[in-house]
Specification:
This protein is mainly α. The chain has helices at 7-10, 15-54, 56-85. Helix 2 runs antiparallel to helix 3. The chain is elongated, with a radius of gyration of 20 Å. The two termini are 27 Å apart. 0% of the residues are buried.
């Protein structure tokens, strides 16, 4: 009984290709993350500081919403970019 030749494993890309794509994805995600940080800092830095000083619970809620928006936006952009470039992603699709 050979468990190493299942149909699922036959469709998997080679390890080196997946490792390369993972490094590319981390690099792209890192660049987008830094860009998002500076955009938020530039446009929302002063309003967030005022909100922190005036209403801490609302500041915490806004911070959580920004984290969720960042995650969704960056995941969408990296997914679209990898699909556009035809690169395999490390997902359970």
């Amino acid at each position: 009984m050979d468990h190493g030749s299942t149909p699922e494993k036959a469709n998997l890309p080679p390890f080196r290709q997946m490792a390369r794509n993972m490094v590319i994805e981390i690099g792209v995600y890192g660049i987008l993350l830094v860009g998002f940080f500076f955009i938020v800092l530039f446009f929302l830095g002063e309003p967030l500081k005022r909100l922190f000083d005036q209403n801490l619970p609302l500041y915490a809620l806004v911070g959580l919403l920004l984290i969720i928006a960042q995650a969704a936006l960056l995941e969408f952009i990296t997914s679209w970019l990898f699909d556009f470039l035809g690169l395999h992603r490390l997902t359970s699709k």
